[in-house]
Amino acid sequence: MDTRTKIVTVGDAGALARGPRPVAVVTGHFDVLLAPYARELARMRESHPGALLLVALTPPPEALLEPRARAEMVAALAVVDYVVSLEEGDAEGFLAAFNAARIVRLEDAHRQDMRELIEHVHSRQSA
Length: 127
Hints:
Elements lengths: L6 E2 L1 H8 L5 E6 L6 H13 L4 E6 L9 H9 L6 E4 L4 H7 L5 E4 L1 H20 L1
Parallel strand pairs: 1-4, 2-3, 2-5, 3-4
């Protein structure tokens, strides 16, 4: 299966919200895909049986990966049904118009994790 077919436009994601199945939404940067992120997505899937799991990618402050690469990486996870890339500042409007079963925002956690990862790499290089 080509998991890139899970990557949808903002309009397509909005259509999912109006569909017959409930939708659980997770927003985040996913600039680096860490095991805890995959576990969080799996927990969302388990806690909302029957719901579609949509991941809305928000732009990180200093991206390591291009938006398409981040989308493809997240779409490759079996627990994810759809992925949409949002532009800077689009998340609030997108979520306000989205009637989701549940919304989980991970941007703050992702920023903190990236800071810790960068600090760890720098400390290893200077040791």
